[in-house]
Write a structure and sequence with these properties.
- 2 copies of one chain form a homodimer.
- By secondary structure, chain A is of the alpha/beta class.
- The first copy, chain A, has 2 domains: 172 residues, Acetylglutamate kinase-like (Carbamate kinase, 3-Layer(aba) Sandwich); 145 residues, 2-Layer Sandwich (VC0802-like), CATH 3.30.2130.
- Chain A has 12 helices and 18 strands.
- In chain A, the strands form 4 sheets. Chain A has an 8-stranded mixed beta sheet, with helices on both faces.
- The longest helix of chain A has 25 residues.
- Chains A and B meet through helix 2 and helix 3 of A and helix 2 and helix 3 of B.
């Protein structure tokens, strides 16, 4: 039995006409002899509408009940699409999270998949051509409804593909694939034919919101080939896959950025063991994710601690720090919301040096001041002033040869 | 453990303000020491909206998928209400059909409840003050989602009360209870304090749409006291209960009517054994419910067959009869849609005669022609011309003493 898993996002299932396009794609794969397992998102806008409704009823809605509410979006999608597919003559049925089951832990609103009953799915595929699975949802071991977090339908798709050992997991969306950078920011942006899981992880975490980051982790863990492509064109899209030699020859795969950044500097804290923990433990307990962290070399027994967070958490973070001030004996707490991150990503960096210094030189040439630097094996990130974002992205994109023309930067 | 089951209809849960009123009622019962199991309908208008959406996707939607779709309405209701109740400090959670489970047969869109896991509910009631159950829905033995037909949340409520041996099942709606007749038609209509299951069954089947008929059958079978009352007033409502001596003293409890009637007459069919079956078997096979049936005494080996059906089935029925014409050698097939049913209902009729003749006399006095007559132990129904409906209802209501004044009709 040859199986393909396809996942269709919210814009692909919004309304009858678009669902007909989805149906045509499925029929095509079925005609080629494949069995299909199709994960659907809620129609675009639906989940936001439900969340807004919840907030009308409760300032801080119970997470378990929130999951009961928002899963209705995917439930409606699969029911409507299955009606359509059945009328077209396919042997098809819908499956909700609890019917497979997709078992998760009990972290409501951000659950993780623990197990998928693949043998149940395989036995259903004896009787059906297509199984239409509600994305984003699962059940915990007590049978309570859970969801996998924003973009969780991607993870549903990849997890189904892993469990069924499918040939491929196709993620259908409204863009043609993964680009070297944001085409809205840089018209020279080029679609990538292939990208490694690791590069894709860096792209996702940087806000190039093509795939939910957990779905990429899962794809990497189970070595599931993932093809990101558009529902609305015939472009083959981008294959997200394991690294190969060819990829390593490419030094830089893309330029990512993230505007949702906010820099906080805590001045002149005591440079003693435990001061970082004293600052960051209370912030983490408040559920605030800290992104970049820099601790300058101390002088006179004091140091500066600088870090970035998402802008929505600024007020809460400042209030936490204000309470901590006596304990950490900080002089001053400064913040700046007019900052952004720019990253150069590429698995080739693993075996080549010089990308970082090239990046710094290119930014200096444009008089762009670097506020913070962070590096990983395959990524170099600079925090810069937000007003230089576009310039920085275009400069780096051109210089590292990501557009159609020849590379400017020589490493 | 003293348990009350409450069911709230679509108008009672439509929006935040009304849900707050529901919450206040539940808190009141909880303060009296009761554990509560609360069945909720979808917000009013929601189910119709979902059905219209389904028809947009399929002319004849797959019933199993239709159930997956429409159950999202109740799912949203219970999630939103539970958020509200939890914020108010109650120990509360929602339960979907599959989580209890409420097991039904596999007749999608009109399933019947086979079993409710009461021990699961009882064990949950050790930990929770209030369980909020999605009405209308269940699962079959394969775990597929089912629904109980229009008004099915009433049946959910009564079935829960039966399974839990609750003190009472309170059905909250937007009217104060069961009336002697439709107050919109007859201003003298009076709310009944009590009504027997059998009378209520006659009311329901006659289109006095206060309770789903199956919920009344179930209440009768398990002797569940059902109180029909308004969410929006303090009126104690109407108790639907088993017959007692007091009730038998009341000759007539109410006047029901049904405008969704259509009369068909098949003229001069062969008066041979099997002719009724030849006519009605094909109609039944088409899923059309025949209501009243009259076969006149034949002459010359021929007879007339007259019956009534719902108006939506007229075209289909006429086309079936047209095909049957050669076989039953009918002269002519006539129909009339300007007819309606008026019924006098009362358990007292079991022990008293004369109600029928009084009804006929009263209608004759007003020059209302009786087109057909049907009787049961506790009901007499006349088919009359639709234009006389209001006059007939008012006349009978006054004459049988159902209003505030003294009875006019003496039996």
């Amino acid at each position: 039995m040859r199986i393909i898993v396809q996942k269709y996002g919210g814009t692909s299932v919004k309304g009858l006409e678009r669902m007909r396009m989805v149906l045509a794609r499925i029929q095509k794969a079925h005609a080629l002899g494949y069995k299909l397992v199709v994960a659907l998102s809620a129609m675009s806008g639906e989940t936001n509408k439900l969340l807004a409704q919840a907030r009308e009823f409760s300032a801080d809605p119970d997470p378990a009940e929130l999951d009961v509410l928002v899963t209705t979006g995917e439930q409606a999608s699969v029911a409507l699409f299955t009606m359509l597919a059945k009328d077209a003559g396919l042997r098809v049925r819908s499956l909700l999270g609890h019917q497979i089951p997709i078992t998760t832990n009990s972290n409501f609103t951000r659950a993780r998949i623990m197990e998928i009953d693949a043998s149940h799915l395989r036995s259903l595929l004896e009787d059906y051509d297509v199984l239409v699975v509600a994305g984003f949802q699962g059940v915990d071991c007590h049978g309570r409804v859970t969801t996998l977090g924003r973009g969780g339908s991607d993870t549903t798709g990849v997890a189904l593909a892993a469990a069924l050992e499918a040939d491929v997991c196709e993620i259908y969306t409204d863009v043609n694939g993964v680009f070297t950078t944001d085409p809205n920011l840089c018209s020279a942006a080029r679609k990538l034919e292939r990208i490694s899981y690791d590069e894709m992880l860096e792209f996702s975490s940087q806000g190039a919101k093509v795939l939910q980051i957990r779905s990429v982790e899962l794809a990497k863990k189970f070595n599931v080939p993932v093809r990101v492509r558009s529902t609305f064109t015939d472009d083959p899209g981008t294959l997200v896959t394991s690294e190969d030699t060819e990829m390593e020859d490419v030094l830089v795969s893309g330029i990512a950025y993230d505007k949702d950044q906010c820099r906080i500097t805590v001045r002149n804290v005591k440079d003693t063991p435990g001061v970082a923990a004293a600052i960051f433990a209370p912030i983490a307990e408040a559920g605030i994710l800290v992104d970049m962290i820099i601790q300058n070399t101390g002088r006179d027994g004091h140091t500066d601690m600088t870090f970035t967070i998402s802008r929505v958490h600024l007020d809460k973070t400042l209030s936490i720090l204000d309470h901590l001030r006596p304990e950490i004996s900080a002089d001053e707490i400064q913040h700046d919301i007019h900052v952004c991150k720019v990253s150069v990503i590429g698995v080739g960096m693993r075996s080549h040096s010089g990308v970082a210094s090239t990046m710094f030189t290119l930014l200096k040439k444009e008089n762009i001041n670097i506020l913070m630097i962070a590096t990983s094996e395959i990524k170099i990130t600079c925090l810069i002033e937000e007003k230089y974002l576009e310039l920085a992205v275009r400069t780096l994109h051109d210089a590292f040869g990501l557009g159609e023309g020849p590379a400017v930067a020589c490493v």
